[in-house]
Amino acid sequence: MLQFTQLKENVNIIKEYMPLSKVEFCDISIGTKYMWRDEFRIDYAFIDDTLILKESSSGYQNAFYYPIGKNIEKALAEIENYCEKKGIPLLFCCIDNDRAVELSKRYPFSIVYNDRDFSDYIYDAEEFKSFSGKKYGGQRNHINKFKRQFPNFEFSVIKKEDLEDIDKFLSEYERNIDYSLWTQKQEEEKVRDYIEKSFNLNQLGALIRVDGKVVAISLGEVVNSTLIVHVEKGLKNYSGVYPTMANLFAKEFAKDGVKYINREEDCGDMGLRISKLQYHPIEVKQKNFIKAKSCFYKIKAPVFIKTERLSIEEILTSDGEDYCKLYLDDNLNKYWGYDYREDLKGEPNSEYFISFMQGLKEREAEYSLAVKKDGVMIGEVVMHGFDYLGNLEIGFRIERKNQKKGYAFESVSALIEYIEKNIKPKKIKAKCYLENLASKKLIEKLGFSMVNKDKTYYYFEKS
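User: That's the sequence. What structure does it adopt?
Assistant: C-alpha cells below.
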C-alpha cells in the first residue's frame, strides 16, 4: 500500500515532477505548494517514477491530484487500493476538464463538481505583453498615466539586497488592507516568508521603485509554457501601478516558449474578479473535484423480485432465525468464502447476524437478499465487491435440504436480470472454490465466462 510523507518546507523534493503534469493549474507549482502548505496539507508518495499527491483542507480530506509521471495507470490503481484499504472515499481534486472526462470513463458512477471561486484565469502571453488593440485601451491608459505621473520609476528583478526595502513596502501595504477575506489575511501572513525563500525555490520576482521607494512587487514561476503569477501587490496611492507591474512582469519573464499567463483564482472576491476579467482571459479554467462512487447507490430499496417459485427480497428481523441457520451450517458454508467467527463478538445469534448484515449494507460493502419459498427464507443471494470501476460481484447459498431443486439457478438468474436492468454495472463478477464443481457448473450455465484461476478460486465475469 502507498506510504505517504507530509510535504513541508522541503517542496523542492517534488520540483522535477511539476513540468510533467498534464494538469496545468497554479496548484501544480512549487510556489503554491510552499505558500499554502499549512492550510492545504499535501502528502506525497512515489511509485514507478510517478508522483502521487494527496491534499486535505478544512473543506475536504484525502483528495488526490491526477498522478504525475510515467505510470499513470499503476498510480491510479494504487490510489484505488489505498482508499479501499483505508475505508475512505475515492476523491480527486484539481482536475482539469480533459482529465475529468478521462476519470469519468474510468469511474462510470462518479460525480463531477467545481467551485467557480477557485478557477484559474488564463491569458495569452503575447497579448498581455503588448496590451494592443481596443479591448486593452483601459490598461494602456492606466499605464500611460502612471508613467506620466512617475517618470522616474524603475523596474528591476528582485535581488537579496532588496529584501529590507520590500519588508518596508509590505508593512505600508498591509496598513491599508481591509482583511474581509480569510484568504487575503492568510496570504499576507505568508508573503514575507515566501519572498525570503523565493531564491531557494528558484522563483521569479520583480519590483517597481519610485524615487528609490518600493511601490509594487510581483513573484511567480514558469511551469512548462505558462508563467504563473503567485503574488502581485502595489500601493494604491500610486495610480496605475498594478497594470504597469503586470505588463512589465510579463515582458520580463513570459519569453523562451512561454505562451500563457496564469493569474490564479479570485477566491470569490468580486472586486478581484472584475479586475481579472478586465484583463480579458482566454479561459477561466475550472478546477474539478471528482468523487468516484460504486454502483451500490443504484440499488433502490426495498428490492423485491418475483420468480415462478420464489421471491428475492429484503432480509427482515423476522427472518433472523432462518438467517442464523444459514450462517451456522458449517457444511453449507465451507465454500462460502467467509467464516462468521472472524468478526464475531459475543454469541452467534439471529440478532448478531441481522446486525452484521445491516452494517455491511450501511458501509455500501454488501447487499444481501433473502431467497424465499412460500414466505420462508431458504437461502441468500448477495451483491458485493462493489468497486470504483463500476463492477460488482454476486454470491449465493441455498440451505442444504433445498439444494438440487433448481432454486439457486432460478434465484440467481432473477438477481442478474435485476442487476442488468436497474444497476447496469460494467461487469458482474463471480468466483468459486476449485473444489466446488457444482457452483462452477451453475455459474457457467448463468452465462459467465471464466477469466482466471489461482490456487483457490475460479474467477468469472459477465459483461
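Residues 407-423 form the longest helix (17 residues).
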